[in-house]
Amino acid sequence: MEIFHNLVVGFGVAVTPINLLFALIGCLLGTLIGVLPGIGPVATIAMLLPITFNLSPVGALIMLAGIYYGAQYGGSTTAILVNIPGEASSVVTCLDGYQMARQGRAGPALATAAIGSFFAGCVATVIIAVAAPPLAEVALKFGPSEYFSLMVFGLIAATVLAHGSLIKAIAMVIWGLLFGLVGTDVNSGVLRFTFGIPELSDGIGFVIVAMGMFGTAEIVANLEMKEHREIFTSKVGHLWPTKQDFKDAWASVLRGTALGSALGILPGGGALLASFGAYSLEKKVSKHPEKFGKGAIEGVAAPESANNAGAQTSFIPMLTLGIPSNAVMALMIGALMIQGIAPGPQVMNEKPELFWGLIASMWVGNLMLVILNLPLIGMWVKLLTVPYRYLFPSILVFMAIGVYSLSNNAFDVLIMGVFGVVGYICAKLECEPAPMILGFILGPLMEENLRRAMLLSRGDPTVFFTKPISAGFMIASIILLIAVALPAIRKKREEVFVEEG
Amino acid sequence: MKIKSQKDFWSGLMFIGSGLFFALWAMEFYQMGTAVRMGPAYFPTVLGFLLVVLGGIVLFQSVVAEPDGDAAVHTPFNIIDLVIALAIYAILIVLSQETGFSSDWALLGGTLIVSLLTVFFRPDAKPLVLVTAATVAYGYLMKPLGLVIATAALVSISAAGGHEFNWKEVTILFVILILFSVFVFVKGLTLPFPIWPEYFS
Predict the structure, then answer these.
(1) Distances in Å between the alpha carbon of A29 and those of A15, A17, A23, A32, A69?
(2) Could B74 and A428 be called an inter-chain contact, meaning their C-beta atoms sit closer than 8 Å?
(3) pTM beyond cutoff 0.90
(4) Is the ipTM of this complex over 0.90?
(5) pLDDT tens string A187-197
(6) What is the sign, positive or negative, of the torsion defined by CA atoms of A452, A456, A459, A464?
C-alpha cells in the first residue's frame, strides 16, 4: 500500500500553512482570471512565473496548478451568467448554462458546474496518484529514440486534436520547432539564427512567446470586438439543484469525468478538448437530444466535469515524462527549470515531497474552490461589471513587468511585442497558435534526442521503427494522420468543433 | 487562376517564406554534418524544407479547394502597410548604427513614427499598434526613466488604443497601477526596477 504512504507524505506537504496559502492564492487568482474573459491561464501563469523565483519549488507549483484548475471553475460562472466563455474551455457551457440562467435557474447551473468539477477533480487526483508511478517507471527505460518518437506522437496528436486545418496546424508546429532552435546549439556551441543580437544567444524565452501569442494578441482581439454583455446578476437566487436535477445530471458528471480524464492525458489535450468532447458525447447518448441548447442540465454538468478532469490529468505526461501536453504544462516545466529541477521521470524518486505534495494539493485546491466559490459568486459577478477599458491596461502592465523582470531587459519586451503581432496575424489567417507553442518548447529537446538516437544507431533512421516502444509511437502517429485524412473521420472532427454554431 | 481562400493563400506564403529563410540561412552559415553526426544546420534545414512543402500544399489548396466559411482576411491594414512599417524600423536601425546612437533609440523612434502613422492613416489598426507600442515603450523607457514614467506611458498609450479615452480615468488608473507596482513588485518582491529617472537618484 505504497500509494497511501505516498499520499500521506503528500498531504503532509500540502496542508502546511504556507502551502495552503499558496493553494488559496492560486485558486483565487485562477477563479479571477477564469471569470474575466480575455485573460487565460497561459498568460497569467506566464506573468507570475518570475515571481516564483523567490518561492519554494513545491509552493510555486501548487500555486500555478491552482491557477489552471481554478480557471476551469471560474470560466463556467461567466459562461452561465453572461453567455461569454470566461475561458476557452467553457465555450460549450454557454450553450445550456446561459439558457438555464435565462429560465431563472442560474443558481442550480452554477452549483451543478461546481459540484461536477469537484467530483471530477477528486477522481482525476486519484487517477494521477495511481497512474503516474508506473508510467514514470516505464519512462525511466526510455532512450533517445523512444523520446524522439514520443515527441513526434505528441505533436501529431496535438495537431489532430486542434481544430482547423490539419496541414496548417502541422506547419505551425514546425514553425514553432524552428523558432525553438534560435540560440546557442548545445552540441557545437554555434550561435544559430541570432543575427548578431547578443540577447538571442540564450534563445527566445518561452514565456515571452506565450505572452505575446496568447496575451497581447488576445487583448487586441478583444479590443477589436464591440462590448455587449447581459448579466443575470439578480437571478442567481437559490443555488441548490432540485432532486430531478441530480437525477438528470449524475450520469453526465460520470461520463464527463471519464472522458475528460482520458482526453487530458493525451498530448495536445487538456481542458479545452475535454469539454468539447464531453458535450458532443452527451448529446449523442441523451434520450432527449432536442433539449440541448435549451437549458439541459446535462449540457452543463458534463463539459464542466470534463474540463476540470482534463485540466488535472494533463499533469500526468508532464510529471512522468517531462513532456508538456499543452501550453500550461509547458509553463509548469519552465517553473521547474527556473527552480533547477529537470522535469522527467526521475522527479518522483528524487523529489517525492514535490510530486506527492502537488497531487495532494490538487485535492485540497478543489475542495477550497467549491467551498469558496459558491458563496463568493456574487463577488465574482461584480467583477464582471468592471469595464474592459480598465482591465486591459492593467493586464498589460502585469505582463510587461513579468517579461521585463525575466532578465531586466527591454529586448525581451520587444520580442513579446513582435510575437503579439505574429499572434494577431496568425489569428487572422486562422493558424492556431497552440501547436506552435508546443513545437517551440519541444524544438531543442527533439533535436537533441534525434541527434543522440542517430549517433547511437550509426546513422540508421530505421532505429525509430525497430525498437518496440519507439515503433509503437511512430505507428500510432501514422495511424492518427491517416485516420484524420480519411474523409469520414475528418467530417466528425469538424463536427465536434462546430457544436457552438 | 483565382484565389479562393485569402487566408490559406497568405498562410501558405508565410510558411514557404519562413521555411525557405530558415533552411537557406542554415545551409549558408552553419555546418551540415552527416546523419550520424549532425551539424547545427541539419535539423533546421530539414524542418525548413518540410515547412516549404506544407506551405506549398496550403497555397495549392487556396486556389483549388472551395473554402468553407469566411475565407477573406479581415485586417485593418494591408501587406504594403506592414512592409512600410518594417522599412521604417530597418532604416532607423541602420541610421543609428551609422551615427553611433544606441539602436534602442531607433526602436523607440520607429515605434513612435509607426504609431503616429497608424493614428492618422489607419485608425482601425489602433488596438494592435498602440497596444504593442505601449509594451515596447515600457521596456525601453524603464532603464533611463524608471518605473513610474514607464508605467504611465504604457497605460496612456494602450488606453489610446481602446474605444474610449478619458484623461481623468487614465490618470487614476496609472496612479493606482504605479502604487501597486512599487509596493508589491519593487518593495514586496524586491524586483530590481529603478523607480525614478537615472539622474534623480
Answers:
(1) 19, 18, 10, 5, 10
(2) yes
(3) no
(4) yes
(5) 888 888 888 88
(6) negative
